[in-house]
## 1
Amino acid sequence: MTIAYTWWKDATIYQIWPASYKDSNGDGIGDIKGIISTLDYLKDLGVDIIWLSPMYDSPQDDMGYDISDYESVYPKYGTLDDMQTLIDGLHSRGMRLVLDLVINHTSSEHKWFKESRSSKTNPKRDWYIWKAPKYDADGKRQPPNNWGSHFSGSAWEYDETTDEYYLRLFAPTQPDLNWENPKVRDALYDSALKFWFERGVDGFRIDTAGLYSKDQKFQDVPIIFPDKTYQPSDLYTQNGPRIHEFHKEMYSKVTSNYDVMTVGEVGHCSREAALKYVSAKEGEMNMIFLFNVVEVGSVRGDRFKYNGYNLIDFKKAVEDQGAFIEGTDAWSTVFIENHDQPRSVTRFGNGKHHNTSAKLLSLLQTTLTGTLFIYQGQEIAMTNLPRSWSIDEYKDINTVNYYKYFKEAYGKDKDFAEKEKALMDVIDLVARDHARSPVQWDSSAYGGFSTAEPWTRVNDNYKEINVASQIDDPNSVLNFWRKSLKVRKQFKDLLIYGSFKVLDYENEKVFTYLKYQSDPESSSPKAYVVLNFSTDSVKFDKLVDGKFELVHSNVSDVVEDTLTPYEERKHREYKQVMESQNSSYKLDERSARFYETLREKELREELDQKIEETNELDKFRRLKRAVNTSSAKVEKPVSSKVSISISRGVVNTKIGKLPKSKPFSTSTSTSTSTNSNSQNNSSNNSPGNSSPENKPQGSLSELRSKRQDTPLDLVSGYSSDDGEEGG
Ligand code: TEU
Ligand code: CA
């Protein structure tokens, strides 16, 4: 197989949040000159591209995602000239710059909106989305529908000037643009895109790339959260009816004319929906961000409704996030942090094993397929803010509003203190603020970020965790990242471009996978990655035959040519080895079975979605026929339940006999999940200040039985071909 290398596929992209990165002039706010002063540091780390979060002029209600002028720079960050210096400074180092493209909405301070709100007859009135109020039985004015804002409350804002509401899916000062109007689209192309391409910018990270096309009926959405007045609007706002038409237009009219990259923030998608955005032949975007991994454990639509997760959920999320590129012409992204997420070492690592678990996550990230994105401070394992900080230290509108609405709803309850503590535990784990504290450059005051008190408080642990203390230490997390990024490039056919297969799906402590080119059973080179996510020493169960060469590990004394069982290595809880050489591999039986049921489940989900979306029987029949065609390949496993074979056809050949019943070992005791949940077992005296959650998150046996049952149910659904809804 020949791989078509592409600069943006190969790239390691480093995200900079300008307010908190580096302050050059002592006003407590990061700036562009500060960024410029660190370009050699970034180059040396192995960064190819910088993604700069919004640096445009803005009132900063949502940290710059509320843009008042696409063509100028927020004065506290610098000037257009500074931006040019940054672009040139990057290009002269062989690096590139990607900006944030925020075109679902503008700030209410943008001149377009000021005109639009001025009167109902203003020519720009329909550049935004205006609707008349509704009145309830008591004659009280109400928003046009029940859509909720992503930042709590209604998604509609009343404007007295014309006695109408405008739509704003985020903050009150972030009115949504009306993409139905071609004049709006053309104005955006000129002002937000071409303006910067002409200055040498190399692409965009596209904010809320699935939200532009709203269902024009503006109906109420179904109630998902009965405890709330306003509901997630995704059904009528996300991946809407004209979204692909819009992306295709933007691509053909603008981005395809430049040698640039695009990565769209989409969030959640079925495989089919993802491909519409990123299949190369569709001509829309190069890649998208999906949230499977970063939102594992949270209820979709409300990150603060957090239920926890276990390693099996995590593996599934990692796989799903990249799986749509298997056998397609699409491309994916790898990331575990950004400005909307907490710090990964706190969320997925373990405070007691701060360095080792940060290295483990580095190894995970640098061995997954797709373009790799890392976030400022991730390379030194910056952590979440301390649990002891009160809500007053949190500045993000998402957190602040959530807390405000929560207090309004429950503030008078007798047990409010308890409820509040529970909420603060979750805020401490998943709020966006954790990513936004100043970068810790050294152990001097304010972590060397600024000489003045920063706009937001520096994490208490800056003396222990900072760049200066790590840069010359060969065992530091920072230098581990540098090496990992080098290894990623060295073995890029496998690590960046290769296929991915989990080998130990049901293992609750260890995450083992194979990276390979084309057929995993062929003799082409492979990489074998083993990550112990638990705090226990575990027996190393070699799931791959053949001889491997150890390439990289976070354990200094791993014996080079053998993988000794982990049980013999006490006190070395986090171990990973990554190997590459010719070999054959085996899936353990559970993984094999899991892969089968996974594909069944995917087909089932596609089917369900279609039924929901269209309610048209003929479409349903067509899909069913397609499913039944693949059932032609169906084999009868020993359990005698029908399973659909995997399209790549690699699994069934090697698994041997499946167990008669219960494909996964079952345990009736819920306590088995306690230890597996190492992420939630940390103590507070660690620099990581990890998750306060200590409870096992959902019974594992419950989880198992769910996973066993689903495919069996759906098999009966598929088996008849009479056009009846199969459930
Ligand atoms: O985020 C879009 C988005 O839907 C979220 O990830 C959002 O932060 C989350 O749902 C809140 O719980 C993008 C930007 O990444 C984010 O920083 C902006 O606030 C948002 O768009 C509005 O522009
Ligand atoms: Ca500054």
Note: Residues 194 and 354 are 44 Å apart (CA to CA).
## 2
Amino acid sequence: MNTIKLHDKYFKNFISKDEIDIAIKSVALQIHKDIKGEIPLFIAILNGSFMYAADLLRHYPGQCEISFVKLSSYEGTNSSGSIKSLIGLNGEVKDKTVIILEDIVDTGNTLQEIFNLFEDKNVKQLKIATLFLKPDVYKKKLPIDYIAISIPDKFIVGYGLDYDDLGRNLSDVYQLTTLNMKNIVLFGPPGAGKGTQAEFLKNIFNLIHISTGDVFRQNIQNQTKLGKLAKSYMDAGNLVPDEVTIDMLKAEVEKNSTAKGFIFDGFPRTESQAKALDLFLNEKGETINGMIALEVEEDILVTRLLERGKISGRPDDQDEEKIRNRFNEYHTKTAILKEYYAAQGKYFGVNGVGSIEEITERLKVVFNQL
Ligand code: AMP
């Protein structure tokens, strides 16, 4: 399972490129067989059918012509019902065997428009070959000669089809999905206040707070195998190896299978952790809604950590050299995650300087948007 985000919506895998290819090939061969030696003029309806047209023609075993017409009936995810003809038909179609390549037929309004366009053109024959048909919503009586794949009434993207212009370049087809969870990565350098803020936010938003640092410290306290393994890395201010941390994180998530979502605090800290988290959530049909980063200058952080060390007793908070090493780990391995999430449109920076309440308020604003 792979969940993707386009604009504000999430889509999950629906039909693979291999399934599509098999269906298109069979339509191409059937058309060739049916028209018995005629040279067809394929007319692809832009924009959605560009990939379909290209692949169908590659599979077409005889000679053929191709032309393009542009119509549009979709704005957003609801069929608007009104069809606008954008680029009309040019070139001679009289006496030709015309095969319309349409990416998807749902209500049939676009198809009606196509039939209207060809009414007075004196074509020899007009056939319709659609890649997708939604039989449950198709209201017209117009004949559809070839249907590669019938689908239920779902909003789909990919393989030429878009959601507000995005998604056409995906090789597979995805369907609109609603996520059940809100998963937030609370991000920032050591001492930025992630743990403090997560404690407030988890109650406000009814989420489970997972702090990998806290889980490691509990394991050290309980002298578990994991704790013994993590201790030497943590005491020196180094990161615990990825495999260990990733397995532990997954186990923490699985423990809370009915959660409404998670606040991940201190995880991911490396790119491979971020990728593992994406994969893990995608398998559940979920995703990271956003990374919210607490932005604080380093000098302020060192002072904060040394102060905290006096109370917390954490060995890695008490020695400036260890603190510097944690920053070094942060800068070399963790800070790049800003780019990782920004590339997916999921990075949100929040000013982490101010009173605890002020910062919670700032975070709440972003949480509510995600
Ligand atoms: P924290 O409480 O988040 O500051 O984490 C304390 C220490 O736990 C870090 O310096 C690391 O040694 C270890 N640790 C916590 N989270 C991770 C992680 N995601 N990857 C590797 N090591 C981690």
Note: The CA atoms of residues 83 and 113 lie 7 Å apart.
